[in-house]
Amino acid sequence: MLKGKTVLLGVTGGIAAYKAAALASALVKQHAIVEVVMTANAAKFVTPLTFEQLTGRRTMVDTFDRNFSHQVEHISLAQRTDLVIIAPATANVCAKLAHGLADDMLTTTTLACRCPKLIAPAMNTNMYENPVTQDNLEILRKYGWEVIEPASGRLACGAVGKGKMPEPEDLLQHILRHLALPHDLAGKHVLVTAGPTQEALDPVRYLTNHSTGKMGYAIAKMAMLRGAEVTLVTGPTAITPPPFVKVVDVVSAQDMFEAVAAGASDADIIIKAAAVADYTPADYADNKIKKKDGDMAIPLKRTQDILKYLGETRKPGQVICGFSMETQDMLENSRAKLTKKNVDMICANNLKQAGAGFGVDTNVITMITKADITELPLLSKEQAANAILDKCLTL
Predict the structure, then answer these.
(1) Residue 145 in contact with residue 118, Cβ under 8 Å?
(2) Where do the DSSP E strands lie in 210-307?
């Protein structure tokens, strides 16, 4: 996802410098161009050769190294950098960057960069919590730096508390959030529903469906990577939610209806990808479900129609997209749903078609609007999610 992007990885003199090697490796696997700049103290923890072997590029430490072209190296590097991340960042380097001090290759290069800048402080808990350090981090935020909060746990010094550098995979997610996709959804609030709902029959059993939530989660992830503020209302699934997304966990169709109703007014785009159970036991609350001749008699009532509610209460300019999973007459049924629910788009698929529907990582979607019909080929669910978001932007 980072092909063609240049990431400047700054490594400073803390014990967590060894984790930076794993981050460099992860970035290379994402096809990024990784330029590593180390402080002299960092080179005492991890050798420059380590990073050179991982990235296939020269690691820079000395501002006055003569093994470069005639260009002023820290300036030319700053000009071709798409993102700076300093991980780990010592208290000393945080202080220097906050106050514009530039006395080595890392600080001079960083000062010349005009791209997004991320910093991951890692140090002793008392050092991190010292008001001076906190003031310096606040100054960095003021100047547009994204300060990645350290993790809590047992530190190398033996103390227990806040100050651990986050894991490389977590840092990678911060980088992907900035660089993976163009931010054409910046400033937009996207509300996505995902997964199944569960309707209790009794304290043990419930009605549900085969939805895994993969499609909704893919839409939430892609919207986040495209710069949107995302709220994901999700029924019970086995999927880890994407990072940087507000997650609202629900169980029943009524829970989901209430969560969507509460958040709909703030959303610019609403995509209902959840497979909500159509029925719920009518008398469960009154304990009237009884066994008769060995069989359970279950009086049912329809659950709230979330998509219809959204269509009836939509605000001006809001884009609403629903899903239609059919086994026959897909186009006809989906067109009828588009009109009946008063929404802008229906994403239809045939559950009998290979690669579509529940439990797989692909989908075959037909996007139906009042103006046109767009048939998508077999795509990964993330690719399909981007196509859906592209279409929503045109509406």
Answers:
(1) yes
(2) 229-234, 246-249, 269-272, 279-281, 290-292, 295-297, 300-302
Alpha helices in the chain (DSSP H): 17-29, 48-55, 73-80, 91-98, 105-112, 125-129, 131-142, 168-179, 214-225, 253-263, 306-313, 330-341, 381-394
Determine contact, residues 124/163, Cβ cutoff 8 Å: yes
Average pLDDT over residues 242-249: 97
- Given the residues 94, 113, 157, 347, the one annotated as active site: 157
Closest CA to 346 of 374, 315, 313, 327: 374
% the chain with pLDDT above 90? 76
Residue 347 appears among annotated catalytic residues? no
The residue count of the chain comes to 395
pLDDT at 292: 54
Please tell me the distance from the alpha carbon of residue 238 to that of residue 210, in angstroms, as a whole number: 12
Three-state secondary-structure class, residue 191: strand
Cα-Cα-Cα-Cα dihedral sign, residues 120, 123, 129, 134 = negative
The domains located in the chain, with CATH, are: 6-179 (3.40.50.1950), 189-394 (3.40.50.10300)
Confidence label for 6 from pLDDT (cuts 50, 70 and 90): very high
| pTM for the structure as a whole | 0.89
For 77-112, write each residue's pLDDT tens digit.
889 999 999 999 999 999 999 999 999 999 999 999
Number of neighbours of residue 99 by Cβ within 10 angstroms: 10
Q: Torsion over CA of 327, 329, 331 and 332, rounded to 10 degrees?
A: -140
